[in-house]
Amino acid sequence: MEPAPGVTVATPPVHGTTRGVLDTIGATPLVPLTGYLEVPDVALHLKLETANPGGSAKDRPALLMLEEARADGRLHAGSVVVESSSGNTGIGLAQVCRYYGLRCILVVDVRTQAANLAAMRALGADVEVVVPCGPDVDPLVARLERVAELVALLPEAFWPNQYANPANARAHELGTMAEIDAALDGQVDVLFVAVSSTGTLGGCLDRIAARGLRTEVVAVDAIGSVLFGGVPGPRLIPGLGAGREPALASGRRADRVIRVSDLDAVVGCRRVARTDALLVGGSAGGVLHAVRQRQHELAGATVVAVAADSGYRYLDTVFDDAWVQRTLGCSPTRLSALVGDGTVSRW
Ligand SMILES: Cc1ncc(COP(=O)(O)O)c(C=O)c1O
């Protein structure tokens, strides 16, 4: 059959079943952080999800949600993938859709970083930015309403629904946590993860339970998130917290929840850039701030923190003094006092 106009049919690979870029998702590095904490005998490792080809942890669930749907026929040639995203899931889905040649419509909100919007568009997705119709409407709620409209409108629409799809958590159970487990031979005392859809948290909990590991799991949430009984309020860091309890969170309990502010996340990002030469994204900054808050309880422990995305997408927000001053009311002088100064020498 002749391909539709504008569609090029790729030559299948000669050997095996390789899926090109999609096969490079996962197997991310675990990086020891040696300068970040003041307490010396904490073995702190950062799971660098930035190393995924789409730049974040969300490449994993994006791939698995679509592959499972492809395998059971919910997704087929001609399907239109529609999803709500704060940025990274959108990039992951756009990546998979572009690879397979599917149309992808992503519903984001005004908090989505400009660089993420550009990445989704560069990968061929149609991006809709929703503006909540009032100050009391959470942007996530507004995004989900628009997704529901699109799904009702488009007969070929497929909504992966990252907030309820068990494949979201499964991707982290089989990927993120399995890799951490293998790299450290199951010897992880405390794991810190950011929560939004709670897929990462749920998947890690499942792996820990299945393997009978003694790992304590700390969910790092935003002040202003409604997860785990939180009080709704404004928050600015993408991927940290939720404005509506996702179905995936139902019945899920971390051993501990630590809530961080937007400024805490900025301080975590700035500090690890100073001490370990790593640019991590806002949610990872929040996670690292939570680790540092608890560092005195962690002496002698092996600790893993998951860095969901990279700081390179936050250069004009988290890493911009003028943005921090303008939006969080923190002056450069106060910020450097919070971050600490000086160079860590390992020469
Ligand atoms: C930057 C970032 N950090 C953390 C998370 C939270 O991960 P999860 O949705 O698995 O709870 C997300 C999710 O979108 C994210 O984009």
Description:
This protein has 347 residues and is of the alpha/beta class. The chain is 36% helix and 15% strand. It has ten helices and ten strands. The chain has helices at residues 59-71, 88-100, 114-122, 139-153, 166-183, 199-211, 262-276, 282-293, 321-328, 332-339, and strands spanning 30-32, 43-48, 80-84, 103-109, 126-130, 157-158, 190-194, 216-222, 256-260, 302-307. Strands 1-2-10-7-8-9 form a six-stranded mixed sheet, sandwiched between helices. The protein has a four-stranded parallel sheet with strand order 5-4-3-6, sandwiched between helices. Helix 1 (59-71) packs across helix 5. The longest helix has 18 residues, at 166-183. The N and C termini lie far apart (63 Å).
Task: Please write out the topology.
Blueprint: E1 30-32, E2 43-48, H1 59-71, E3 80-84, H2 88-100, E4 103-109, H3 114-122, E5 126-130, H4 139-153, E6 157-158, H5 166-183, E7 190-194, H6 199-211, E8 216-222, E9 256-260, H7 262-276, H8 282-293, E10 302-307, H9 321-328, H10 332-339
Parallel strand pairs: 2-10, 3-4, 3-6, 4-5, 7-8, 7-10, 8-9
Antiparallel strand pairs: 1-2
Helix pairs in contact: 1-2, 1-5, 2-3, 5-6, 7-8
Bound molecules: pyridoxal-5'-phosphate.
Pyridoxal-5'-phosphate (PLP) binds at residues 56, 58, 86-89, 194-201, 238-239, 281, 283, 308-309.
What would CATH call the architecture of the largest domain?
3-Layer(aba) Sandwich
- N→C terminal distance: 63 Å
Order of helices and strands: EEHEHEHEHEHEHEEHHEHH
Sequence of strands across the biggest β-sheet: 1-2-10-7-8-9
Helix share, percent: 25-40%
Helix and strand composition category: alpha/beta
> Which term fits the overall shape?
globular
Poorly predicted runs of 5 or more residues: none
What name does CATH use for the topology of the largest domain? Answer: Rossmann fold
Our count of helices gives: 10
CATH class of the largest domain: Alpha Beta
Total domains: 2
Largest sheet: 6 strands, mixed
Strand content: 5-15%
